[in-house]
Amino acid sequence: MDTQSRPIDGGSALLTDQEACQFLRISPRQLYSWRVLGIIPFIRIGRSIRYRLRDLEAAIESLAVADPSGNRPKPINPRVAGPLPGFRTGRAPDAGSPGSCGDENQAAERIPGA
């Protein structure tokens, strides 16, 4: 942070877009999205936008995921957990599943003249 970002009179530091991105370790586009969605409050000073350090820290805490017991769940590994319900994997349906034709011979028997 540069000298302009230092707090005055014990207040919270004001960060620029670039400093906020570095602090949060996110891209400028993500910062903009969070600002538009209201996840991160900001201060407009003329045409400049600044972020309070304490607001960024509070926003991160509000994004933290925890179960009612206070324990944070382990991240889901999609390769282990499998596809989400209703999510199409792009694979062809199995022979016994609805919407599949099954064996090619059975399909030919159902079509007259084949």
The major β-sheet equals: 3 strands, antiparallel
Mean pLDDT: 74
- What structural category do the secondary elements indicate? alpha+beta
Strand order of the largest sheet: 1-3-2
How many alpha or pi helices? Answer: 5
Helical content band: 25-40%
Stretches with pLDDT under 50, minimum 5 residues: none
Report the β-strand fraction as a percent range.
5-15%
Tell me the series of helices and strands, N- to C-terminal.
EHHEEHHH
Q: Radius of gyration over alpha carbons?
A: 26 Å
| Basic shape | flat
Model description:
The protein is an alpha+beta fold and 114 residues long. The chain has helices at residues 17-24, 28-37, 53-63, 78-81, 104-110; strands spanning 14-15, 43-45, 48-52. A 3-stranded antiparallel sheet has the order 1-3-2.
List keywords for this structure.
alpha+beta, 9% strand, three-stranded antiparallel beta sheet, 5 helices, 114 residues, flat
Layout of helices and strands:
Layout: E1 14-15, H1 17-24, H2 28-37, E2 43-45, E3 48-52, H3 53-63, H4 78-81, H5 104-110
Antiparallel strand pairs: 1-3, 2-3
Offer a quick outline of the entry.
By secondary structure, the chain is α+β, with helices and mostly antiparallel strands. The protein is 35% helix and 9% strand.
